[in-house]
Amino acid sequence: MSPRVSEEYREARRTEILDAARARFARDGFHQTSMDDVIREAGLSAGAVYGYFPSKTALVHAVVDDALARVLRAFDAASAEITQTAGDPGAEPLDGAEVAGAVVDRVMQLLSGAGIDTSRIALFAWAETMSDEELRVQVAARLVELRGRLRGLVTAAPWNPSAPVPDDAADDAALALLAAPIGTIVQRHVVGDADGAALARGLAALARSWAPRP
Amino acid sequence: MSPRVSEEYREARRTEILDAARARFARDGFHQTSMDDVIREAGLSAGAVYGYFPSKTALVHAVVDDALARVLRAFDAASAEITQTAGDPGAEPLDGAEVAGAVVDRVMQLLSGAGIDTSRIALFAWAETMSDEELRVQVAARLVELRGRLRGLVTAAPWNPSAPVPDDAADDAALALLAAPIGTIVQRHVVGDADGAALARGLAALARSWAPRP
């Protein structure tokens, strides 16, 4: 094999293992899933799996980071699309709450995808960060990245340039905006009835109610 | 002992055990805490502790339910106070986002209290509901109660009767509003820098940005 084919092969194998681990972790959590479960799910040899991930901890870290990287990519795709649409000549100014809700809804749809809702992994990961400091630092860095994206979105407010969040309130606004999908994921899995579309409608209703009276 | 004294005694003992369990669970999570740890922390005999809680699962359920009951009581106290203030003759109309943020901030302050922040238990509890259906149903019922309170608050909007959330959007608004503190608790423990005050400022900034242009 040429080095290039070998690298592609390795990457495909790694992806197969991550897919298998993600499915098991989303269903049963990290503690109830063994390396043997993942090996069986992936249909590979133990040696092959351990060759990529020397321990379950390494696999947990990789699955969580991969999931958060997907969220960031989905966010970028959704917000780029909306920014472009809002920049079209003659485009109507968009409602900020609806834009925020629509972006979040798109990201949450991507996570639920086919089969098991991989956003279940988020609940296991947050608990795990309380006893795994390396994982906590890793997840924190991704959440801070997400806040940075949200900060950029609300300060630029491409859908309505007359109403950006001022710089000195932008960190708090990003925190509040990131809280919304996180809290919706928790309600989705614990109560069973929450999704991005309901969140988007709720944010829009609150924004209308909270608007300063003329 | 008269039956009354005996009942008070039992209640005090039960509270002692719950306090000890809450402290250990908040620090180490449910899985890393044994009944022996709780017994040592409470300074009681094993027989005494098992007399109140026959298993760790029973203790986990009781601690989680007690924590959620405290949140509901704190919410009721904070919202009653704000409703009363807003009803004073000549009171200025309050900003809805600031009211929501203030209530959440008050509840979160109560949870963090002295010593270990008991809101850490929330992260363990959400993960646990994924494999403990009885706990999930119990936590879901409390979250639905909380949503009901938030629904009442935003539809009555006592701080500004001219801007209630309409009935048909109230369920979604309550979901979005409950998502905010949940998502802030996660960020508080994972990133380490989020609190109710920052959330309150962030919600107010978003509301100003999202207000319909005149």
From TrEMBL, chains A, B:
Residues 11-71 form the HTH tetR-type domain. The keyword DNA-binding applies. One of its GO terms (molecular function) is transcription cis-regulatory region binding. Pfam families: TetR_N (PF00440). InterPro entries: DNA-bd_HTH_TetR-type_CS, Homeodomain-like_sf, HTH-type_TetR-like_transc_reg, HTH_TetR. Residues 34-53 bind DNA. Keywords: DNA-binding. The keyword Magnesium does not apply. This is TetR family transcriptional regulator. It comes from Luteimicrobium subarcticum.
